[in-house]
Amino acid sequence: MNRSWKRTRLVAGLAIAFLALLAPQINAHEKGVLKLATRQLVPGDSVEATGQRFSRRASLTIELAGIAGQTRLAEIRTDSLGAFRRALVVPADLPAGSYRVVAVAADGDEVASVDVSVVARASAPLSSHVHEENAPTARPLDLARAGSPLVTGGAVVIIALTFVTGVMLLRRSSAVESSPKAGGGR
Amino acid sequence: MINAWVGERFALSALEYPIPARSNRLDFMLGALTLVALTLLGVTGIVLTQFYDPAPLSAHDSVRYVITSLPLVSLVRDIHVWSATGAIVLVFTHLVAVFWRRGFRRPREGLWWSGVLLLALLLGLALTGTLLKADQEAVEALAHMMAGAQVVGPLGAPFQPNFTPASPLLTRMYGLHVAVLPILLVALLSLHLWLVRHLGVSAGGDAQTPFRTHLRPLGGFALLLVAVLAVLALAAPAPLLAPGVEGFEVTKPFWPFLWLYAAENVFRLPGMLLAPAVVFGFLALVPVTDRPGTRLAAITRWTGVLLFVLMIVAIIYAAVAPGQAHLNMKR
Q1: Would you state the pLDDT for residue B241?
Q2: Alpha helix (H) ranges present in chain B?
Q3: Hey, are the CB atoms on A186 and B323 less than 8 Å from each other?
Q4: Which one, of B315, B185, B237, lies nearest residue B81 by Cα?
C-alpha cells in the first residue's frame, strides 16, 4: 500500500512537471482582444477594428471565416504595446450570413476572434424596410446550380439500376405467385 | 445452404407468419411505402444537417451555398424535398384506402388513431422543413404559424419568438424538425408497426400467404418509388426564393398546406385554424361514429368522402386562384 502510494505520487509528480514544461509551448501566443466598431457588416463598407494585448510587434492576419472558407481582410503589425487600430474593408461580393473575424498569428494559430453578421445591402434579410427594387417576390432565385457530370451520371446509373432491380423483383414475385407451389393456404 | 445458415442465425423463420394474400397488392402496401419515403427523408436529412446553418442570418445562405457549390448535396436536398411530397401523398392515399375499406373498425381503432397522429406529425415536419429555407415562403409560413400559435394561448408560446431570448425561433424550429418531431414519429411508428404485426397487415381476406412472400413485391415497389423520387429530384430541383422579408405575403404555401390557404382566403385566420380542426376532429371520431350496420356508418363514410373532395377542390382552387395577402400583410 505504502509502496504503491509512493509510486502514484512519483508518476503524478512527473506528469505535473511534464505539463509545466509543456505549458509555455501550448500557450505560445498571447491571446489578444479583437473589437469591431459594429458586429453587423455590410459588403463593400469598411469597419474599424481595434486590438489589444497581442504579442508586441507581431504580424497578424485578419480573416473573415464563413461557411465557404476564409477571406483575408488585412495584414497588420501590432505596436510596442501589442495593440493596433485599422479599418477593414468588407469584400463587396461577400454573401450575407454569419461569419467570424479572426486574428491569425504568423504561425497560423488563431489568437482572437469576434462573431459578426454580414447583411446584404440590397436584400436585408427579415427586414421590414423594403425598397421598390428589392420588393419580395414569389419568383424563385435564378441560381447557377452546381453541376457535376460525375454526380449526374452516377445518379442516372443508380436510378436505372434501382428501376431495373425493382421491375425484376416485381416480375419474379408475380411469377412466384402464379406458380402452383406459392402462397401457403391459397 | 447459405439461406439456411442466414435464416437460422437471423431468425428468418419469424417471417413465415400468415397474412391475407391480398396484402401483396399495391393498395395494401401504401403504408410500407410511406415508411420507405420516411427512411429516405431520414437519411437525406442527416446529410443535410451537415451543411445547414440554423442561425436566422445565415440559414438562407447555407441553403444557397449547397445549391450553388455542392452538386451531390444539392441532389440530396432535392431528393429530400421530393421524398416529403412522396411521403405525404402516400400517407394520405393510405389513409383514404384504409378509410374506404373501413380498416379502422374494432379492434383496429388504435392503428387508425396512431395513423392519424402520424399524418399530423408529417405535416408538422413539412411545415418546419419549409421554414428552414429562410426564404420568402418560409417567412410567410412563419408569420402564419405565429398567428395561429397566438390564438391558442399558452399552448402556442413555444412558437413565438419571445418564448426564450436565448435562441431564435428559426433555430428552435430546426430543433423541432431534426429532433423533437422525428423522435415522436419513430415512437408512433413503432406503435403503429407493433399493432400491424399483432392485429394483422389487413383486416379480413380468406386466402393466407406467408409474410415472406410480401417482401419481394414490397421491395420491388420500394425500389421503383426511390427511382421515381430520384428522377423527379433530377428533373425538377427544389427552388429557393430570395431571403424573406417580413410583413409581405406574395407566395403560396407548400402544396400540402394549400387547402389551409384556401380556407384562409374565404374565412381569414379562423378558417386556417378551423379547417384542420374539422378534418382531424373528424378523423379522430371515425372509429367512434362508425357503427356497423347503422345509418351512422353510412353518414360517416359519406362525410369522409365529402371532406376528401372538399380538400382536393380547395387545393386546386388555391393553386390556381390569384394570391392573396392575409394577417394584414402587404402584397
Answers
A1: 94
A2: 2-9, 30-49, 56-69, 71-100, 109-131, 136-151, 169-175, 181-199, 212-235, 258-289, 295-320
A3: no
A4: B237
Nearest chain B residue to A137 by CA: give it.
Answer: B250
Residues near B90 by beta carbon (within 8 Å), at least 6 away in sequence: B30, B33, B34, B37
A46-52 and A84-89 strand pairing: antiparallel
CB contact under 8 A, A144 and B21: no
| Digit-coded pLDDT (tens) for B173-204 | 999 999 999 999 999 999 999 999 888 877 66
Are the beta carbons of A143 and B67 separated by less than 8 Å? yes
Is residue A35 classed as helix, strand or coil in its secondary structure? strand
Which of A136, A162, A186 is opposite residue B207, by nearest beta carbon?
A186
Those residues whose C-beta lies under 8 Å from the C-beta of residue B6, and which sit 6 or more positions away, are B12
> Which residue of A lies nearest to B207 if distances are taken between CA atoms?
A186
Mind telling me how many Å the CA of B252 is from chain A's nearest CA? Answer: 8
B203 burial class (0-12, 13-18, 19+ CB within 10 angstroms)? middle
Query: B195 or B19: which carries more pLDDT confidence?
Result: B195
What size, in residues, is chain B?
Answer: 331
Contacts of B239 in chain A (CB under 8 A): 140-141
Task: Give contacts of B243 with chain A, Cβ < 8 Å.
Answer: 96, 120, 123, 125-126
Chain A residues inside the 8 Å CB shell of B238: none
pTM: 0.75
Nearest residue to B169 (alpha-carbon basis) of B204, B193, B143: B143
More confident call, A139 vs B226: B226
User: pLDDT by residue (tens digit) across A125-152?
Assistant: 444 344 444 578 888 998 888 889 999 9
- What does the DSSP assignment read for B239-289? P--SBP-TTB--S---GGGHHHHHHHHHHHHHHHHHHHHHHHHHHHHHHHH
Smallest CA–CA distance, residue B76 to chain A, in Å, is 10
> Nine-digit cell at B312?
382536393
Question: Which is nearest to A52 in space by CA: A76, A73, A72, A70?
Answer: A76
With CA atoms as reference, the chain B residue closest to A94 would be: B61
What ipTM did this prediction achieve? 0.84
Kindly state the average pLDDT of the residues A20-37.
66
Nearest residue on chain A to B210, judged by CA atoms?
A184
Cβ distance A173 to B220 less than 8 Å, yes or no, reads: yes
Q: Which three cell numbers stand for residue B122?
A: 408529417
